[in-house]
Amino acid sequence: MSQLEHLYTVLGQNNVLTGPAMSPYLEDWRGRYTGTALAVVRPGSTQELAQVVRWCNQQAVPIVPQGGNTGLCGGATPDNSGRAIVVSLTRLNQIRSIDTDNDTMVVEAGCILHSVQQQARQAGRLFPLSLAAEGSCTIGGNLATNAGGTQVLRYGNMRDLCLGLEVVTAEGEVLHGLQGLRKDNTGYDLRNLYIGSEGTLGIITAATLKLYPLPKATCTALLALDSIPSAVQVLNIARNGLGAALTGFELIANNCLQAVTHCYPDQRLPFQGESSRLPWFALLELSDSESMEHAREQFEAVIAEALELGVVQDAVIAESLAQSQALWHLRESIPLAEKAYGKSIKHDISIPVSRIAEFVQETNTALQAQFPGVEHIIFGHLGDGNLHYNLAKGSAFSEDELLALQPQVYHIVHGNVHRFAGSISAEHGVGQLKRNLLPLYKDPVQLALMQRIKKALDPNAIMNPGKVLPDTSQ
């Protein structure tokens, strides 16, 4: 107990959790990783966190930063040594400022993404990051993993949406970099170094985020398709016809939506007959800066062209905000339905859009040849080449049997990703799930530089050990 006395003094006893009170912080969202910890601490300010980190650095106590604990790669879960302090950032949840002239807002790391979206909207602005976990994930976690979501096609990843950071370094110093500048060429870009580093270099405590004008109108449609090449062709038609107004283009396999409607009977697929049985669907969204009339005219022209060319078999255009939300709710419910069916082998990959169809065909064939009956759960952000290429047990395997196949499945899927010039992590990060895979697929010079950066910024190796960087002791 005496080991924690300093933390009690800094944070107060209510914000230093031990024993059973730590349980919600020790297991990842997927239920794949469970660890133990010396304590869970909940700092209420950047200054409190800096004191905690300085103490941990002096005592050589590992630190595992955690936001909303919605990650999919075990990046915020401690190991089983019981030596680490889990730092929950949920009390750092203030919107510090909103500047509509500069189109920026300064928010703390523990702010829930949905709350940030709402605060921006109340100020007449758009913060465009949108993803399924937005009701519980935090801005700090979004930055730590360089989150993407459904509007990367128009607005970019979290790295593109951030202008500045406040960071507590591994030695307990505070990096003050919240200037809302779009041009600053005064040296190395430290901001982008910390974004995507998953808490292995320091702990992000606040960020200056970009804001955008609210669109005057949005249009949403769900298209029924016979193949992925058709989806790519529709994407090209939409890009040519809509330009930057195309803000979302999601590819969804039929069985994903069937799983959603089975798990959540209140949701309905808006197609009947043959259209409801087609193998693929695409969810499109346009955001227009002029008017609903202008938006609708452009949108209908693009869909009409695709229908006339035969690359779209059927289409449903939302006629109201409620219908648009219902279509997006179908898409956003896929991860929850997938979880309800049991644990799966997940892949968050990116492939050049031009090669996605070939990748899916070859990889599906290879997996079925080796593991007949495994179920493919494929959906994702076709517009930016990011697929969630997942495997479920189907009727041929038990959950345990499927998970035992993970190394063999990874070998096939990631091998093909590499062969098609892709990445084995697009937006979920590396965490502990993929860290020892990096030497197989990442340039050795890049890995060596990453190791040097880690050593320079975290000389005592206390920041989120066992994450991102491969284990060099093996």
From TrEMBL:
PROSITE patterns: FAD_PCMH (PS51387)
Domain FAD-binding PCMH-type: 33-214
Record's keyword terms, sorted: FAD, Flavoprotein
PANTHER family: BLL6224 PROTEIN, D-2-HYDROXYGLUTARATE DEHYDROGENASE, MITOCHONDRIAL
Family affiliation: Belongs to the FAD-binding oxidoreductase/transferase type 4 family.
Protein name (record): FAD-binding oxidoreductase
Organism this protein belongs to: Alcaligenes endophyticus
